[in-house]
């Protein structure tokens, strides 16, 4: 596949406090494995992965950002060119959840005139016995800010694929409907050389009026994206950070 052999390229950003597991989520999504000794991100790290939405190859540019305050100015420089992203907190760390609003406000303010599409992600469900943030609190915050909510485990991979594919599907629908447009000088969405597939182009609507699209997972299975009403459920480097 050539560098431009995709229908669209979406640039996504991962935001949240240090040690909530942003890098681990990204590595789990990209490589399908857990790396327990990942070091803290310094500035911004870049990754990429190809997914398929309704038969269309979509290239995801993934920007993993540092959570430490001293890197905040560097991170802000990447907001404007992001079409969407993951707001990540640690379900075992109440403070990381309390800070999500600050991350969201900062991103929205610095991304203007664009409005990135975010999903809220509560990570570390493998440590649920230490939970400090209830699912209800997270779902409420997400619904108040127009986001879907998912709980993940970067350690065992639970829901990690679904989060990225759901976000890609949502952005694809907004692009397809003309709500988000390809713009010169903006890197949030870029068009590749592959024409949009027409074989799976039809839309379905559920009772809430949302569009429904089938997303092809890397495992070869298909998954129908669901909203936040059910909490998104599906059945130099420094000190080391947890998953």
Automatic annotation (TrEMBL):
SMART domains associated with the record: RAB, RAN, RAS, RHO
SUPFAM superfamilies: P-loop containing nucleoside triphosphate hydrolases (SSF52540)
Keyword Lipoprotein: yes
Source domain of life: Eukaryota
Residue ranges, compositional bias (Basic and acidic residues): 188-198
Organism in which the protein naturally occurs: Geodia barretti (Barrett's horny sponge)
Pfam families for the chain: Ras (PF00071)
Keyword list, A-Z: GTP-binding, Lipoprotein, Nucleotide-binding
Signal peptide, first to last residue: none
Family: Belongs to the small GTPase superfamily. Rab family.
Chain residue ranges for the region called Disordered: 188-243
Gene3D superfamilies recorded: P-loop containing nucleotide triphosphate hydrolases
Molecular function terms, GO-annotated: GTP binding; GTPase activity
Name of the protein this chain belongs to: Ras-related protein Rab-39B
Keyword GTP-binding listed: yes
InterPro entries: P-loop_NTPase (IPR027417), Rab_GTPases_membrane_traffic (IPR050209), Small_GTP-bd (IPR005225), Small_GTPase (IPR001806)
